[in-house]
Design goal:
Layout lengths: L2 E6 L3 H16 L3 E2 L8 E6 L4 H17 L4 E6 H5 L1 H5 L4 E6 L6 H7 L4 H14 L16 H6 L1 E3 L25 E6 L10 H5 L3 E2 L2 H13 L4 E6 L15 H11 L4 E4 L9 H9 L6 E3 L7 H6 L6 H14 L4 E8 L6 H13 L4 E6 L17 H26 L3 E13 L2 E8 L4 E5 L7 E10 L2 E6 L1
Helix pairs in contact: 9-10, 14-15
Length: 470
């Protein structure tokens, strides 16, 4: 039986794509390998949100080929969509498949049978008969050199024409079946000047509410206690559907029509955090008390240059509204350090805004110019040293906000979900768990994963809350 391994990079959306590919390959009779070094086919699912992500993917591809030169390597994902020629030039790559054609990977794997070259020729003819064409047909540029195309075939196209929704819940991993991630939205219609994602994931498209509910029912039947909903632009969910739907409506339907015990929502843009959405969280204990709202900058001047559609005080009001209705909610934010043209005054404005807002943690990103984005062409690019310093200051502030929030939890009682991670220290065994408001908790004692336990928070140590059973 042929075996395959998926090397995964990037966000929850790319993880969901990998889960869908795995499900399809298993259904076709392929066996999951525990190690890329022993797999017949290795699918590398890439990210391209930063230059570091591109580098990480290239290093992984080289390592796979070095350790398993006989493997057929298929590279897909956002980097493959953005710069397929770069990947095709790497030794050991059989196919580069953009997000535009990612649903074709299971059929492509079937064609990678006896020989890479024979399979490439056979599959190229098959795709041509079925209306798929190689990258060169979509471009006016000079075709790839023959030597490059002999090593790897490229299958990609106009991602804006993609209408298929590649979906399967992400299960397993550290959390086991306790917290599967279900992608319900893909693509993005916004045009933030720094972001390459619309170019590599296409237009916003949503999973029909009926399908979402069916998937969550299935996850609950298989033992999931918490489900995480994810997407590229989750707040835009349903606006492409007919009839149109809204995220708040979907959440209410899930609560009404499924038995899932806890529902967590991943990142939602600030202007989509409406009073109607907050009200659903406030009225239902099954909704995790956790909001993640990208900020990116606290300077209105920089927000305009980023093509963000809100200003600092608009964002502040949304965060304060969450805190007013949900006093113990976790509120996280993304922020970019060193955007082109960002001055020290702009940076200080961001620090000051974060300092006064009820944020509980930060995800800090150093600006990385992405080819083809407007921000990459802007003047006044900041130096690497300046970007690193500002990112460090933001991370330090984020850590202070996190510790202050954790300290406010000491003495409270909460319900926590045990995960697939445990250990021991000088005080004995402990079990890791997650609270509704995203608290990383260590419960004293050894407990099976996937249990809800009532816990009292008794302290904090090394970035973790400490808890005991009530």
């Amino acid at each position: 039986m042929a075996t395959f391994f998926i090397e995964q990079f990037g966000c929850r959306a790319t993880q969901a794509d990998a889960a869908a590919i795995e499900r399809q390959l298993v259904e076709r009779g392929y066996e999951v390998s525990s190690d890329a070094r022993r797999a017949d086919v290795v699918v590398v699912n890439t990210c391209t949100v930063t230059a570091a992500a591109d580098l990480q993917a290239r290093q992984a591809i080289r390592g796979i080929h070095r350790d398993n030169p006989a493997a057929r390597v298929i590279v897909t994902g956002c980097y493959a969509q953005r710069a397929p020629e770069e990947i095709a030039a790497l030794d050991g790559v059989s196919w580069v498949v953009g997000n535009s054609h990612k649903p074709e990977i299971p059929r492509l794997v079937e064609q990678l049978g006896s020989s890479v070259h024979a399979a490439s020729e056979r599959t190229s003819r098959q795709f041509a008969r079925e209306g798929f064409v190689p990258l060169s047909a979509f471009r006016d540029e000079t075709p790839l050199p023959v030597v490059s195309r002999a090593r790897a075939e490229i299958l990609t196209g106009d991602i804006r024409k993609q209408t298929e929704f590649l979906m399967a819940p992400v299960e397993g991993g550290e959390a086991g079946h306790t917290r599967p991630v279900l992608k319900i939205q893909d693509g993005c219609d916004r045009r933030c000047s720094y972001c390459v994602i619309p170019q590599v994931r296409g237009k916003s498209r949503s999973l029909a509410p009926r399908v979402v509910i069916e998937e969550i029912r299935g996850l609950s039947a298989r033992g999931a206690r918490e489900v995480v909903l994810s997407g590229i632009d989750l707040g835009n969910y349903g606006r492409d559907l007919a009839p149109r739907a809204e995220l708040a409506e979907l959440l209410q339907r899930i609560l009404d029509e499924t038995s899932v015990e806890r529902l967590r929502v991943s990142s939602v843009e600030p202007m989509d955090v409406t009073e109607d959405l907050i009200a659903i969280f406030e009225a239902n204990e099954r909704m995790a008390r956790h909001f993640h709202m990208p900020l990116q900058s606290g300077s209105d001047r920089i927000l305009r240059a980023m093509h963000r559609w809100y200003r600092a005080e608009h964002y502040a009001r949304r965060a304060e509204l969450v805190r007013e209705h949900l006093p113990y909610a976790a509120i996280g934010a993304d922020v970019i350090a060193g955007f082109p043209g960002e001055t020290e005054d702009d940076h200080q404005a961001t620090l000051a805004l974060i300092e006064r807002l009820p944020l509980t943690y930060l995800h800090v990103f150093s600006f990385s110019a992405r080819p083809g984005t407007p921000a990459a062409e802007l003047p006044d690019q900041n130096s690497e040293a300046v970007i690193d310093r500002r990112a460090g200051e933001l991370r330090a502030l984020g850590e202070r906000k996190k510790l202050a929030f954790q300290a406010s939890q000491v003495g409270s009682e909460t319900r926590a979900l045990t995960l697939n991670r445990s250990g021991s220290d000088s005080d004995g065994p402990w079990t890791r768990a997650l609270t509704s408001n995203y608290g990383n908790l260590r419960i004293r004692g050894a407990y099976r994963p996937n249990q809800f336990l009532d816990v009292r928070v008794v302290g904090e140590r090394d970035g973790h809350l400490l808890g005991v059973l009530v």
